Amino acid sequence: MKEYTDLTTLRFILFEILDFEEVLAQNRFEDHDTESVNMFIDSVKDFSDKELYPYFREMDESPAHYKDGEIIVHSQVRETIKKAAELGLIAAAFDYDDGGLQLPHTLVNAVYWIQECANNHLPNYYGLTQAAANLITHFGNNTLRENYVSQMLSGKWTGTMCLTEPQAGSSLSDIRTTAYPEGEHYQIRGQKIFISGGDFQGAENVIHLLLARIEGAPAGVKGISLFVVPKKRPVQGEELTGNDVNTIGDFQKMGQKGYCTTHLSFGDNEDCRGWLVGEPHQGLKYMFMMMNEARIAVGRGAAAISMAAYRAALSYAKERPQGRSLGDSGKKNPEEQQVLIIKHPDVKRMLLQQKAITEASLCLVLLSAKYQDLSRVHPDPEERKRYGRLLDLLTPVTKTYPAEKGTEAVSQALQVFGGYGYCNDFIIQQYYRDIRIFSIYEGTTGIQSLDLLGRKVIMDEGKAVKELFLLVEKSSEKATEHADLAPYAGKLREASELCGKVIAYLTGFAREGKHERFLADATVFMKFFGIYVSSWLWLEMGMKAQQALDSDSTVYSKAFYRGKVLSMKYFYKYELPAMTSLAETLFHTDTTTLNDLDEEL
Which among 145, 360, 429, 436 could bridge 534 via Cys, Cβ 3.0 to 4.6 Å? Predict the structure, then answer.
């Protein structure tokens, strides 16, 4: 059994913490039950064992690279895409009418997490294809759906999202790629950079979901439209012809080397055709559906890497002898045998930190996916809106907390290995390099933080935050019923009170029109809020585990439940107190970062 993941914790979070049966009870998912869900999870684990994990280090050692006008990738890329499609992983969440399995997004995220624990390079190729096809399904006309979706869901064609340009970066209002009307299609001219899976050897066709300005469109984001731009365009039946989409280079990266990142040029020979998706000038609105789902996927990928790194560190700590116990005497006896490093308190602290961050991250990702499902299929329209607000609020946190704290967790995993962790002999250094990009993917931490504080916290006059506070209070009330958990419930209530004060203080600047001051410390607020949300999730996990211990439950082992309670206690001792110091920073009156520091820095 490959030890890169933890299916027991996955099932515990799905069924015990998030009540996944509530999602399965919705009409859309009536064909699925707990048994079929567990069978699907097991089949994906088996697929990951055979098709993903064995190639993880190989893909790092033989990176994707540009040569003679194309991107050379590991031979397993095409093989895995094919087998993933056969397993239904690309079409998993799609309607039956589109050839899908009509599975909940909660489950889809769960099984993608398993794959990304095994190999965080390969699933991106078909995960992005799924997201691009989903966008066409939602906003494309019948012709676009007929021409592209089935080929993408079958794994025959792959998909991308093309946003970033050399001169614009994250500032999409500054993109210059232009679409010129020409009958039923448009001529596309421009360049895109940092395009994940943008092209690779052996890909029969790559379908780009591309943002561009129609000639004469308004400036800024209001003038952006969305287009389907295939590498090869369909002519008749299954016949394809080149579409003047050219790969002009790639980006060699410190991590995720097996996942190609390309520089594309469109229309060098003035023969690149694109087809408008939806209405003109609505492209960014459409793309945000794909971007928001991608942000949850980024958080999921980071949660997966931190889990794999934790499992590697845990295994190493249980087999590596070094040093001796101090015992009550405070002196080491050199005559005694060396102890395993897991016996040392500081190593236990590092492992608990990794476990606490990793499992909170997974819980946050799956909670957001559950809200995504219920915001779309719940029969009560008011409940759909409520779940939608909570999803909007948590999306930037779901992307950021696993990425930022996951990097910290993987760093601690490397520390457990000591000097060996820094060497290529062990896989941990690859996890450390791979996870670093996740705080940059799909909008940097700074951008996510501006979105959280500047948009999501204040939307609908703070309604989503108030609804989150109510959920947290319900958890605190339930925990108070258990004598052992009452102190932790009290700490969480104090955290809620502090969170409310910080939000009231910061939003006061927005009401006064001092918007730069309001958002100057948005990233500090993101750290603060991420710890708050994770504290809530850990109280839920600790409470459920304690209830299982009290009732002598045999669903999972006693050691498993004790591990959850200990992780909760760790989080409340070592992680939650950071909210106080972060609040001190947020309340501070100093405005250094608002000064002009061109010469001072």
Answer: 360
Q: What is the pLDDT of residue 328?
A: 61
Print the SS3 string covering 462-514: HHHHHHHHHHHHHHHHHHHCCCCCHHHHHHHHHHHHHHHHHHHHHHHHHHCCC
In sequence order, what are the residues at sequence separation of 6 or more whose Cβ sits closer than 8 angstroms to the Cβ of residue 246? 69, 264, 265, 266, 268
| Residue 164 contacts residue 136 (beta carbons within 8 Å) | no
pTM (two decimals): 0.95
The class level of CATH for 159-281 reads mainly beta
Strands 206-214 and 178-182: parallel
What Cα–Cα distance (Å) separates residue 292 from each residue in 125, 372, 397, 435?
18, 10, 11, 19
pLDDT digits (tens, 9 = 90+) for 452-467: 999 999 999 999 999 9
Of the chain, the end-to-end C-alpha distance in Å amounts to 53
Q: Which residue has the tokens 């209001």?
A: 222
Same fold, 7-153 and 159-281: no
Q: How far, in Å, CA of 514 to CA of 589, rounded?
A: 13
| For residue 516, pLDDT beyond 70 | yes
Question: CB burial class (10 A; 0-12, 13-18, 19+) of residue 537?
Answer: buried
Model confidence pLDDT, tens digit, residues 229-253: 999 998 876 789 999 999 999 999 9
Residue 278: both structure tokens together: 């939806």
Please answer whether residues 321 and 20 qualify as being in contact, where contact means their C-beta atoms are separated by less than 8 angstroms.
no
In this predicted structure, what is the pLDDT of residue 327? 67
As beta bridge partners, residue 213 has 178, 224
CA distance 121 to 300: 13
C-beta separation of 261 from 251 below 8 A: yes
Q: Is beta strand 206-214 parallel, antiparallel or unpaired with respect to 158-162?
A: parallel
254-276: pLDDT as tens digits: 999 999 999 999 999 999 999 99
Q: How far is CA 172 from CA 194, 211, 225, in A?
A: 14, 9, 11
At 296, give phi and psi (nearest 5°). Answer: -65, -40
Q: What is the pLDDT of residues 163-220, one digit of tens each?
A: 999 988 777 888 999 999 999 999 999 999 999 999 999 889 999 999 999 999 998 8
The answer for residues whose C-beta is within 8 angstroms of residue 442's C-beta and 6 or more apart is 291, 294, 295, 298, 399
Q: Tokens standing for 548? A: 């299982």
The domain limits of the chain are 7-153, 159-281, 444-591
Whole-angstrom distance, CA of residue 337 vs CA of residue 325: 10
**pLDDT tier at 334, thresholds 50, 70, 90:** confident
Token pair of 369 as six digits? 């996916």
Q: 192 near 175, Cβ under 8 Å? A: no
- Dist. CA 141–CA 278, nearest whole Å: 7
Q: What is the CATH number of domain 7-153?
A: 1.10.540.10
HSE-up of residue 234 (Cα within 13 Å, Cβ side): 15
132 neighbors 207 (Cβ within 8 angstroms) = yes
Amino acid at site 33: D
In the numeric block, which tokens belong to residue 21?
A: 């049966």
Query: Is residue 214 within 8 Å of residue 222, measured between CB atoms?
Result: no
